[in-house]
Amino acid sequence: MSSPKTHCIDCNVEILQSTYDYNCGYCGKCYKREIRKDALKKANLNANKAIEIAEKHLYGEQVGKLDADHVYFDYNERDGGRWVVSVSFGWENTDPDRFFVIIDDESEEVDIPQVL
User: Which residue of 13, 21, 24, 35 is most buried, as measured by CB atoms within 10 A?
Assistant: First the structure.
């Protein structure tokens, strides 16, 4: 016996009824997008402020090397919000060296995770 199915209220993809009930009518992808949109409304920082903090942390001043294509807001209900700024060095037609600067939305604390 198969589980009952229905459709996402946003993108109309077929989903399980239990997913529909749990996510207020949304599939997982649309639900996460809606959560992020709501979280961004409450965020203390914005993309430009996150970039400014990352540049000041890396270069000691705002240098304008990064733009909004390099930043996104990551939010989950358990940990809250954080801004992820992607910084890369190298030519666009090669594989650039890349790392991430993570900025806590509430405290503005900066973290650069080590990649092994």
Answer: 35
Distance CA 112, CA 116 (A): 13
- pTM (two decimals): 0.61
Evaluate whether 35 touches 13 at the Cβ level (below 8 Å): no
| Of 84, 83, 71, 73, residue with least CA distance to 38 | 73
pLDDT tens for each residue of 28-52? 999 888 887 888 888 888 988 988 9
Angstrom distance (rounded) from CA 53 to CA 108: 8
User: Cα angle at 34 between 108 and 32, to 5 degrees?
Assistant: 80
Q: Please give the backbone phi and psi of residue 91, each rounded to the nearest 5 degrees, phi first.
A: -80, 150
CA distance 83 to 43: 10
List, in order, residues 6 or more apart from 10 with CB less than 8 Å away.
26, 27, 30, 34
User: Token match 């009824």: residue?
Assistant: 17
